[in-house]
Amino acid sequence: MSQRCDLSVLEELTSNAKQIQDDVLTKILKSSANTEYLSRFLEGSSEKELFKKNVPVVSYEDVKPYIDRIANGEPSDILSGEPITAFILSSGTSSGNQKMFPRNNNFENIKFAAALSSLVISKHVHGYKQGKVMIFSFTQPLSTTPCGLPLAPATTILLKSKNYRSPAKNSTSPDEIILCTDAKQSMYCQLLCGLVQRDEIVSVGAPFASLLVQVIHFLGNYWKELCSNIRSGHVSEWITDLSCRDSVSMIVGEPNLELADLIENECGQESWQGIISRLWPKTKCIEAIVTGTMAQYIPALEFYSNKLPLVSRTYASSEAFFGINVNPLSKPQHVSYTFLPNMSYFEFIDVDGDGEIVDLVNVKLGGYYEPLVTNYSGLHRCRVGDVLQVTGFYNNTPQFRFARRKNTVLSVYVEPTTEEDLLNALTSATLALESSDLILTGFTCYADVSTVPGHYVFYLELKAKVNNSTGELPLDNKLLVECCCVMEESLTSIYRHFRAKDGFIGALEIRVVEQGTFDSLMEYYFFVSRGASITQYKTPICINSVEASRVLEDKVLARFFSDKSPTI
Ligand code: AMP
């Protein structure tokens, strides 16, 4: 049964969050209390109080044995009251391990949340509804678990499900192109569709900012070929996926010399500043998540779009859909997500205090919490591993800023540097580079403990704002050394103390890597994870595998060190 979806529903949901959360938990317990997993703690009771008292807070690893048993053919009701019909693979790039989550085939909630978020955007972005959106999205080939259930990243499972119809009826790319599992053919065709329909497009985007930056790089490599296809009205022969080829050919239509010249002229200019707005002049916003580790792509997207509003629509994971951004035009650093209380049952561990667990409506303004998910497909009080900060309330429902992934820390001595600290360093680097001729297009770091004392190494991929004829990057020693210094200044007082006073930490280093290095890093992660999706990929803010650092090391162009101690 589909749910009503208009903006008044958002008011109703957020005004009655407590009741709705109670109802969600009751429903889940009614269907799952007799599972092997829960009956150990509840003995068949669906009492909410007993659930909170007896059911333990767990991590993925604790539930994994049950998940594996279902994947191997045991009935779903050992874990979930609702039948498990598929398994979704998490990206694994944020936590380091790829996880496999059970999933039922009810996508009503997700469809509802996506539709609600689109309504919110139409309300704030004038003319959004009247135009088309070019949102890059990809699917992976489905694999199967030993018992034959489909296994793939969430977007793939969703897009391929019979119960799910593409919500973006106003999308420039037909489903056939998005469902093509060859990412290169699909990306090429999505761009071709978008270029041909350039005058109708009001929004350009991708689920995550990193993917959109990657698409622009791809466009940088293929624009001449795309233009030649438009000029001749004939799609390149290497597009061999038949349904993709047929549907893109229909859209390309007759030869269009004028359009090909126009695009060639824009792409052939020395600087790609504002290329998105130049190629798609009616674009009103860029839809891509730019919070969390995605913040590193803000400068690149602002550059390519001439500072169009960057809209981070949703906060979701393989465990659950959490919330939507009800102020889509807020600046990236002010983005908060309003939780939708009908999605799953949510609890929150106070990560700064005594670890107390509270309900959605009982979180405190300013507090830092890790969400726990109890969902309809077998997760009960499962830790998500994200840390969120409460920034306000929409009616009775809290709004959260994404602070960081938990436990992703860098440390060369005993200083605990969190992902959020690293993001502060990233912001400082971005500011330091702002007035220069360079923009940051990739960022990650690691703790180099092969030197004594150990030190922080930041890998930066930089791009010249204006392409020069030699293709060389104008690396200014003074600017990059200064960049190292401001990054150190932005790290925690504990870091600065150990670095400046005790000498337990060595000078911070920047290693500038060749262009395309972060694409290689992504390829490396796909290689190891086999089956991750580029739609879900998140550049790790920090790397800790020797192999991943080798990918970067091979591409280092220059090194710079901070030349003074930070203040303490
Ligand atoms: P996955 O399960 O692979 O899709 O990854 C989910 C994870 O991506 C979440 O737990 C977050 O760490 C991250 N993530 C998802 N949405 C956002 C967002 N809007 N802002 C920041 N991080 C996000």
From TrEMBL:
The UniProt entry, under InterPro entries, shows: GH3, GH3_C, GH3_M
Instruction: Please verify whether the record's keywords include Ligase.
Output: yes
Looking at the record, the residues that make up the GH3 C-terminal domain are 420-545
- Residues in GH3 middle domain copies: 337-405
Task: List UniProt keywords, sorted A-Z.
Answer: Ligase
One Gene Ontology term of the molecular function aspect:
ligase activity
Keyword Ligase attached? yes
Q: What family name appears in the similarity comment?
A: Belongs to the IAA-amido conjugating enzyme family.
The molecule here is called 4-substituted benzoates-glutamate ligase GH3.12-like
